[in-house]
């Protein structure tokens, strides 16, 4: 069995440091296995959030060698073990302890987004009819596991700390899932422009690169929403044509 | 939430990432920078932009100019003589604007030229006063779709140029079909520019993305699906078309200057 050295961030919001741990690595292990092994054998007080160990709960988000990733989906054989592997907490949220951050801000943001408002039912029994082709693109967004890695890597939150103004890629995806839904009748574009400040996104696609569910966040959610905001607020010709379409 | 308790912002270039994270922005900086310098230089030349039936895409459509390709003849007298004149200066702002406001290029040059961010999860040089595309001047990027409309018109002119590049005249003035290396280059230019234009995010939106239900509009649905397929390769088309359009001008320029001889295939 091979040995690997992990440099794990230990500390809280007051401060902290990297601490080194050597541990045995066996075939098939992921980073979360190694971290839990260290927790069990060497650092019983190491705080680490995890749950499903299958890439579906979004709990074990961290930064491995500087890249935002799920610890449970990062296989050890994809990392160079000849040098120490760094494991840090996410940088866009306040640190609680060690690898655990306080992501509750995200839940507050979600509450601010207007809820799904379906049109009147299509059938007398109170049901609706939809075509699969119309719901396909929304279903991509429903894959989100809320790991918040996209929020973590987004430089608007991570580096510019615009949490009070910008809702971040996760909630632009959430808004896109509602806004593009064939049954939805709500209009969230003014909120996206003024409250969500979609204009802060400068399309660097970092969110897309880190998404463990491979959601094409920038191309399929954010840019289409930006285009809808342009329709509504910045394009006089489209606005003019809309007047006729409504009639 | 106590925002003050957020982790301390990292300084410029600070990251735990390994590997050559700086390579991609560096290559973008060099490639885009080289293209901007070359295209600006070429646009100001005002000569060696046509050779026989070949016309440089930087100068197409040639509204006024000295070549036989000019739509309305030579430079008109009402253009002040002190103003720098070149047929390219009259038109190049449109495809230039299309690329400058393109969603792909925006993301690329914000990283490579403005380091905002220089790469994902890497510290930035500026922390405060970030405005993104919410305020002037970057709010003007929302004009992209208007440049798209112009780019679609330019495609028609460039397609005509590509067609004409297969029509060779002999010494007696008779025109016949032929294939030169220039014909292939100018046709490839149209192919890649069309790929770039038809994969545009704005076109994808306008053609069907703005609708929540497309199943009841089969033609629009097919157009949207086709545009979406191309859109997945938008970055590839962006770079290929950038290289080929620059090389097309360079090739015609070399022929016109007598440095290279056109290879006739047929």
Chain-wise SSE layout:
The complex is a heterodimer of chains A (about 250) and B (about 270).
Chain A (H helix, E strand, L loop, with lengths): L1 E11 L2 E11 L5 H11 L19 E4 L2 E4 L14 E4 L6 E3 L2 E2 L2 H9 L19 H10 L7 H5 L1 H4 L9 H12 L9 H6 L11 H5 L6 H18 L1 H11 L1
Parallel strand pairs in A: 1-5
Antiparallel strand pairs in A: 1-2, 3-4, 3-5, 6-7
Chain B lengths: L22 H23 L4 E2 L2 E2 L31 H5 L1 H8 L2 H10 L31 H21 L2 E3 L5 E3 L3 H18 L2 H9 L8 H14 L2 H23 L10
Antiparallel strand pairs in B: 1-2, 3-4
Helix pairs in contact in B: 1-4, 1-9, 3-5, 5-6, 6-9, 7-8
Question: Terminal Cα separation of chain A, in Å?
Answer: 73 Å
CATH class of the largest domain in chain A: Mainly Alpha
Major beta-sheet overview of chain B: 2 strands, antiparallel
Distance between the termini of chain B: 72 Å
Structure notes:
- The complex is a heterodimer of chains A (247) and B (266).
- Chain A is an alpha+beta fold.
- Chain A is built from 10 helices and 7 strands.
- In chain A, the strands form 2 sheets. Chain A has a 5-stranded mixed β-sheet. A two-stranded antiparallel ribbon of chain A has the order 6-7.
- Chain A is elongated.
- Chain B is mainly alpha-helical and 266 residues long.
- In chain B, a hairpin with a 2-residue loop joins strand 1 (50-51) and strand 2 (54-55).
- Helices cover 49% and strands 4% of the residues of chain B.
- In chain B, helix 1 packs across helix 4, helix 1 (23-45) packs parallel to helix 9 (234-256) and helix 3 (93-100) crosses helix 5.
- The termini of chain B are far apart.
- Chain B has one domain (22-72, 84-124, 133-165, 178-256).
